[in-house]
Amino acid sequence: MPFDFQAENHAVEVRTNPFATKFVCGAMPWFGDDLTLLAKELLASRRIGCAIVGPHGTGKSTLLENLAPALGQVRIRLGPEGIAAESNSDGNLVWLQLRRGRAGDLAFSPWECIRQSKPHWCKGGILILDGYEQLYPWQRLRLLIRLQLSGMRLLATSHRHHLALQTILETSVSDSIVHKVIGHLLRYCPEDQAAKEWLHAKAKQALLSHRGNLREALMDLYDCYRDREFLACREHV
Fold this sequence. Notes:
β2 and β3 form a beta hairpin. This protein has helices at residues 5-9, 21-24, 35-44, 60-71, 110-117, 137-150, 175-185, 193-209, 214-226, 228-235, and strands spanning 49-53, 74-78, 84-87, 93-97, 126-130, 153-158, 166-170. The protein is of the alpha/beta class. α3 (35-44) crosses α4 and α8 packs across α9 (214-226). It has a seven-stranded mixed beta sheet with strand order 3-2-4-5-6-1-7, sandwiched between helices. The model is unreliable at 1-14 (pLDDT under 50). The protein starts with a helix and ends with a helix. The longest helix is centred in the C-terminal third of the chain and has 17 residues, at 193-209. The protein has ten helices and seven strands.
């Protein structure tokens, strides 16, 4: 189960801003489609590769965090620097977070991260790639061939569709999801309904300015939470 910073600290940090980075970018429940059905669809698919597609900040990584337990156990998890954050020899999931770094720095190379994970591949396992678009076209082709030869499958997140991958879900942010996420972040805060609705309205405005990126919109609320307008809203209720 993902570590819940707020559940751990709410007794001693009631005044902590709920829109701090450690909450907004930390463990978050999935408020979208039913993950049980999604997991069944993924496991039943005959394609080597499947993809979760959506713009920045629409919950692709959050979906992976909540979907993974229905797919098996994590065998190894590598961050962008190639450092194992999680390891279990009995697991079937090899989880990689890809990103591009400084030119010539192999530690930040997406392909180098994949190469380091290869000894942990197992027949019938699933390679989870968070950031498929970080690979060059020839790397994607080579990866799919190697996965097929190894008896592995691929589950990737991407900002766009790929012909070689079956899109199993497109992420987007609805007004209902915004409301639920704000309610989740405020669940240990003694705010009344009027204040929550005010923050919800602010989040909708921020979401428009960030073109649907909920993560960036929520980070904007950090300042709103401390804003005088918010304090005035609480005083007049």
